[in-house]
Specification:
The structure holds 2 protein chains of 2 kinds. Chain A is 36% helix and 35% strand. Chain A starts with a strand and ends with a helix. Chain A contains 1 helix and 5 strands; from the N terminus they run E-E-E-E-E-H. In chain B, a hairpin with a 3-residue loop joins strand 10 and strand 11. Chain B is built from 16 helices and 11 strands. In chain B, the strands form 3 sheets. Chain B has a 5-stranded parallel β-sheet with strand order 2-1-7-8-9. In chain B, helix 2 packs parallel to helix 12. The longest helix of chain B has 16 residues. The chains are: A alpha+beta, B alpha/beta. At the A-B interface, strand 1, strand 4, strand 5 and helix 1 of A face helix 2, helix 3, helix 7, helix 8 and helix 10 of B.
């Protein structure tokens, strides 16, 4: 049961918060999260937030993906240049 | 969904697939995805067919309903029989049969069995019906355990006398160990469950890398997460450098969720537990401890529950060990289907058999 969904915290009242995703709002237990603020994204599983989404880490992951993409594009450019060089005039 | 455009980006998935292809591994690498939610994601996002030239996907035992044994269900069915009791259960468990009946059968017979989304819903039932005994069927792995723990603690704080828990939670790493200890296992690496890891951190998988030399990559559930994690795992296999990698850092902290770990330690203690299809695994289950024992539902059981061995020929046990793929079972898509399931793997939304069934190829209609 690994099903958890990211939801945005819209209001907090003690150990519970209102969170929203895809236009749906639901009440979520937040006792497992330290330092939670309105606007944070949390992973919700069976009515409770189990962790906050760390946006800095997410950006880092996206950076790596962009680098892979650049590297592959560069590789393609090299290959097509090589082919053009080798092509008979 | 936050980051959806990036994490479901087809270009990134194609890039990662190209990178996997460039590794030029001369065979399909056997990767076990432990978690049923990963199995489901492979099919849903078309990753299975996209990556099938490079990866042989072996589904593991990460489906809490699939590994819940007949004795647990028989106890739940027995408790449902008492008019005083309200059984509160996660939806999936309702259709799994014990030795004879399922909870759905009991409901059809007029017994009070109710589906809940969260353990806190079960607590709400106890508050609403003070004269009835509410029995929450606590199944699930480490992702769900802290929620059950919080709920039991809440019940204690409110001094509720009519809330009970039938302990049926299991722990993932001991099952992974068991599979690795089988000398005939063919697993080359593990895709580790992202949300279990959000709770327990990544340390529990360290032993598997050290003792068995199998890489463990903790992965999220979006298509880019999975393709990326598989790329990392396959690189490890290519260079024979198994390692423990956290590839879900936006949700998983290496040390996990300390608050969640503390509440679990306060309410539960570890013990030996029975897994359907795998037998008893040492220190793989959780049971109420100390002052929380008074919430244990076994005190409501007034007779010995005798469970019958399953003789249907269901191969669920082999499927969750990764020894057999669902279509290899002779009942698959014949006697066994979601409408008439023979075993829990076909009942649960995270069951390998159910997932394979939903995405099975059908003959194309003639033009």
């Amino acid at each position: 049961m690994c099903l958890a969904y990211p939801m945005k915290v819209v209001s907090i009242a003690g150990p519970r918060a209102m969170a929203e995703a895809c236009g749906i709002r639901r009440e979520v237990g937040i006792e497992l999260i330290k330092n939670i603020a309105v606007g944070d994204y949390v992973m919700v599983h069976a009515g409770f937030a189990i962790e906050k989404v760390d946006t800095r880490q997410a950006e880092k992951t996206l950076e790596v993906l962009k680098e892979y993409h650049e590297a592959l594009q560069e590789n393609k450019r090299q290959k097509s240049n090589d082919l053009r060089k080798r092509a008979p005039e | 969904m936050i980051y959806e455009s990036a994490l479901r980006n087809k270009t990134y998935v194609k890039d990662l697939t190209a990178n996997i292809a460039r590794l030029r591994i001369e065979r399909k690498v056997k990767v076990m995805e432990v978690c049923g939610t990963h199995t489901y994601a492979f099919f849903r996002f078309g990753l299975r067919s996209l990556l099938s030239p490079y990866v042989d996907f072996i589904s593991g035992p990460g489906c809490p309903v699939c590994i819940t044994g007949a004795e647990y269900l028989d106890t739940a069915v027995y408790l449902a029989g008492d008019k005083k009791n309200i059984i509160a259960t996660f939806g999936d468990l309702m259709r799994v049969r014990g030795s004879k009946y399922s909870l759905e059968d009991m409901r059809a017979l007029g017994k009070d069995v109710r589906m809940v989304y969260s353990p806190s819903d079960a607590l709400a039932l106890a508050r609403k019906y003070p004269k009835r005994s509410v029995v929450f069927l606590s199944i699930g792995f480490e992702t769900t355990v802290p929620l059950a723990a919080l709920t039991v603690r809440q019940a204690k704080e409110e001094r509720l006398k009519n809330f009970f828990v039938l302990c049926g939670n299991h722990l993932i790493p001991p099952a992974m160990h068991l599979l690795c200890e089988d000398e005939n296992n063919v697993i080359e690496g593990f895709l580790c469950p992202g949300h279990v890891s959000a709770i327990i951190g990544i340390r529990p998988y360290r032993d598997i890398v050290k003792r068995f030399g199998k890489g463990c990559v903790v992965s999220g559930f979006e298509p880019v997460d999975i393709a990326f994690s598989l790329y990392i795992l396959l690189q490890q296999v290519k260079h024979n450098k198994p390692a423990l990698v956290n590839n879900y850092t936006r949700v998983v902290k290496d040390r996990g969720n300390i608050r969640a770990q503390k509440i679990v330690e306060e309410v539960f203690t570890v013990g030996d537990a029975s897994w359907r299809g795998l037998g008893t695994i040492k220190k793989s289950g959780l049971f109420l401890r100390g002052q929380y024992k008074r919430f244990c539902a076994t005190q409501l059981v007034r007779k010995k529950i005798i469970s019958r061995a399953d003789r249907s020929g269901c191969l669920c046990g082999e499927v969750i060990k990764g020894k057999c793929k669902p279509p290899q079972c002779r009942f698959f898509d014949k006697q066994c289907s979601p409408a008439s399931p023979l075993g829990p793997c076909m009942v649960s939304q995270e069951g390998a058999c159910r997932i394979y069934y939903e995405y099975r190829s059908r003959p194309r209609p003639q033009a």
